[in-house]
Amino acid sequence: FLSLGLHEFDVLKSAEVNDFRWKMRVLCEEVAREREKKSWQEKVLYQFPMRLESSKELPPMISKKLRDNNLVILVRFENTENSFTFCVHHLTTPRELLQQVLAKKAHTTGQQEERVEDYALKICGQEEYLLGEYPLSQFKYMRGMLSKDMIPQLVTVSITSILVEADDPYVNIESLETKRMKSGTLTSRRRPKTSCSWSVEEQFSFRVNAVQKLNCDQVEVGVQAGLFHGGEALCEPQKTKEKLAIDGEVQWEEDLQFDIEMCDVARMTRLCLVIYEMSKNAKGTRTRKYKGGKQDLYINPLAWVNTTVYDFKNQLKMGSITLYMWTYAEDLQAEDLLHPLGTVVSNPNVENATALTITFHKYHCENLVMYPSIEKVLEYAAKDASQESSSAPTAIPHASKMYLEQVRQICARDPLHQMHEQDKELLWYLRHDCRYHLPHSLPKLLSCVKWNEHKDIAQMLSILKRWPQLPPENALELLDYAYADQYVRKYSVECLRALSDEDLLLYLLQLVQALKHESYLYCDLVEFLLRRALHNQTIGHYLFWHLRSEMHVPSVSVRFGLILEAYCRGSIEHMKSLQRQMEAINKLKSINESIKHKKEPRERIKLAMHDTLLRNHNMDVLSNLQNPLDPSVRCKQLKVRKCKFMDSKMKPLWLVFDNNDMYGENIYFIFKIGDDLRQDMLTLQMIRIMDKLWKDEGLDLRMNPYSCISLDKRMGLIQVVLHSDTIANIQKDKGLFTATSTFKKGSLLAWLKDHNPDEKSLNKAIEEFTLSCAGYCVTTYVLGIADRHSDNIMVKTNGQLFHIDFGHILGHFKEKFGIRRERCPFVLTHDFVHVITKGQKQQCQEFNRFQQYCEQAFQILRRKGSFILSLFAMMLSTGIPELTSVKDLDYLRETLVLDLSEQEALKHFRSKFDEALRNSWKTSVNWARRERWYRRELFVDLLFTEMTAATGDLPFFGSSFEGKSFSLAHDPGKKRGLCSEMTKTLSTATISAALGCALPAGFNFSVLNVPQSILQDFCNTTISAKLDRPLTHKELELIWSSIVAIFLFGGMIGAGVAGWICNLMGRRRSLLFNQLFGLGAAVLFLGSKSADSIEMIFLGRILAGFYSGFTFGAVPVYLTEISPLPLRGALGVIQQLGLNFGILVAQVLGLKIFLGTEEYWNYLLGFFAIPIILFSILLYFCPESPKYLYIIKEDHAAALNGVTLL
Length: 1206
Prior knowledge:
The protein is an alpha+beta fold. The protein is built from 43 helices and 33 strands. Among the domains are: 45-161, Roll (Ubiquitin-like (UB roll)); 194-366, C2 domain (Immunoglobulin-like), CATH 2.60.40.150; 375-382 and 416-498, Phosphatidylinositol 3-kinase, accessory domain (PIK) (Serine Threonine Protein Phosphatase 5, Tetratricopeptide repeat, Alpha Horseshoe); 720-943, Phosphatidylinositol 3-/4-kinase, catalytic domain (Phosphatidylinositol 3-kinase Catalytic Subunit, Chain A, Domain 5); 984-1205, MFS general substrate transporter like domains (Growth Hormone, Chain: A, Up-down Bundle), CATH 1.20.1250.20.
């Protein structure tokens, strides 16, 4: 269930693990006791949390949609078809609405009015209840429905039908306390004497003992070590002498001493180590040139490991420890030798990992060396401040306006901007003014602290205790890897406590990743997340899956496993629900694996999939479970007949469930294996955050970030967006499937008119399109979302545009031969502009309004640029391929132009807007080119794999989300299922192409080999008679070589024009046309002897070469396009078989017992005319290529007829 057995935690025998488990049990027991005391309503809200806006005040964009400040609400009654419509004031509470509902029901039915306390209002289709004294308009559901111009639908339910789960009493913690006592150090039994590390003035040093299991032999290796706090080096790194590794082992026993005193080693300091080899060759990007006397050598890193200097109890580590190292192949982020951002956890694969043994020195002969507590640190800071009265901070700000303005400018720079030393000194000197005037400058101030001087650390922690609370969005940055100090991170968590549950869910992805930057298992962030999860089951749901999806990562498996254990033990009933989801996911995984490798016809695989799903044990597992994408929605039962698999390589499952609420809509999602969905999750989360930033400023751009969740390694779920289609399908539909459909600007508007027939609905759809198009233009530009082709952009029938498939972000654009395919800042085609302007000229009021939306959206994001950068920086530890280093964040800095003024930035964006509009034709060209390639490559596959005996629909693989389909009109009497066996027509066409084309070509390849001497005598005799002298040996060799080589000249011409002629005449007719050249060559060969003409042999060889070259270009195309997918591999080699068979025939017939004689050599050369004539007759009656008929000729009926014949 947790992917790591709970007994494995016991096997670790780690004092830190046991201490963490004990603390978590204490925490969870405390929460469990609080939960037992909660009222019924509080228990309902824990299990079914309400989604509320932070303020009762309605934003203008919502309030203008009210009718005289009233809401129109449709209310149903549980298990009945009765419903009533109410018009109530938007400040009406759920209780007040419920009173009206019950009164209306009593009046209608004539029964006695029931008590309000016995009922509750539930959102239709969801397990979310409207409780408490909040106005209806404060519920997110209500505002969402208002923004869509839809009527909210509620269900009146009896409180007895609301199943509130009763958690089992939390398990007693005495057993774990015993383990904690046994596994602890001496501090558990007796308290030893301790000394403060700040009193130790010796330089920090440790001993490198030995290394084992190195993956190298007979090479010189060394160890380099460095001390880091966050990503900042505290002193110069040190390294050992290089020694020869023998059988993967090296003994050093060498002390490394650093230029830093023990008292100045910060609490969260990491000791980073790397083993490197000395090599004559550079290997990879991390290789460094050796700066010693051996100038021809390179330093190539082999393995790395990090460890903390202090343990989890503030105690300085001492004695020998063995660290199991990570190879650089397992880590994609490191570019330098040392890797301070890597985990401090040793490689759990102890059997195969390189083992490095080091020894920490003991700085006191009797006492343990401890880092001072926060109380002692503050005492030290106060004492230091009193001794330095000249520079002592005062409560009154003392900076001048000029200096304050300079500080403001420094703090306004983005987080990635490198500060100069002068700026750091100024900021540190005015630190108290920063606290008083510029609290948001805290991240900048922390980067000014000298973390290798304990005096600065004490002063910083002292001022931090008095620092005002930051807004949660600003405090998030302090959980980045750069801020390692535990009290800084504790301060950040304290600020995050002000986050609402909805905002916490918005940033949960980053908070989970921030756990990877913690040096120890227990920290304030873990406690914060667990407490919030144990008070809100929705938070617990997403926390579980964010942790569970990375349990396969060795560096976090123990940490995340322990947190999962704590949560599941603290919420027993929710654990049962999560376990049921896990069982369903595993069942879907096995079903997907079973169909992924099948080579049978599509319909047969689909039927087998349905049969598997319909089995009782599968139906039981796949019913009555929460939707992992949205836990407020419960899946009742799988609708098997609507389920299918999609056409991509990994065959994702398209699943449809009945909603547990009889009034709710069906639940659709895609189960996908083989793709890493974490990048999609991050991109969609950033779109949600941008949407929130815009809405906070009163700008609703009608964004549609669908749900997506990663469940395990390369496995996850994607929400299906109903009532939508891709731009590609719309253009094909309205562009009548022509090659220029991507250039026709009326197709999208015509499609919207089809779905919005009246003027009011059409204007609403165009407004939705305009707003959403503006939002996604800015989003894709700022985030650098690439691969924006017409299959990755969709439109809903209500006009909302949205993007899908975020496989390339942050400017990682696709290139071919070093040239970027996408050169527009964002997609804004003429088709889009045609919709925005309602078919009018570009420079109209509607288009100007659209541009204003874009500019306003960009300016809002730019003002929050530092916040956006910090969110991405927190995700560097995920291992997402396109977000691995700080360099990847430079793209965001470039698009947000944070170094420019507001006016300059706006001018820059306007230039990008004009560029996108001016170069929109390039986007259309790219789309047309991709569409043509796509149709050419996939059409025959789809024709053969999608034709069924039941329907005439041919699903067209345009969107990985919707699986849209179009129909081809054809004769129902000719419908037939896919057959992977050879039909008569297909066999005839294959044999005709192989024996009638490929065999003669192979024949001409080798026909001259056996009768070479006979033909040379003929050439000598013929030319000598004309010249009246015998030919010299060199002249004869030249003539014979020309006869042989000129065949290749003809072949080059034939192969060069084959594609053009095939497209011009068709595949079958071009093959018949080519047979004329073969027959012409045969006639010339046959008549050359009687005419005594060597010229006829020359011309015949040219024609035979043309014939053979053309054959090699045309036959594979024809065979590939007429063969069904299951037989394509087998039929693809038929040409080679025909070629080889022709070579064999030529060699056999060239023997003297057959045609290799002076009398019959001309018949030998012309023999290939026989198979040409015979099989040309058969080829004439074979069908044309369906792909050629459909794509080139655009004759859909003929294409379908050809498929049925084949």
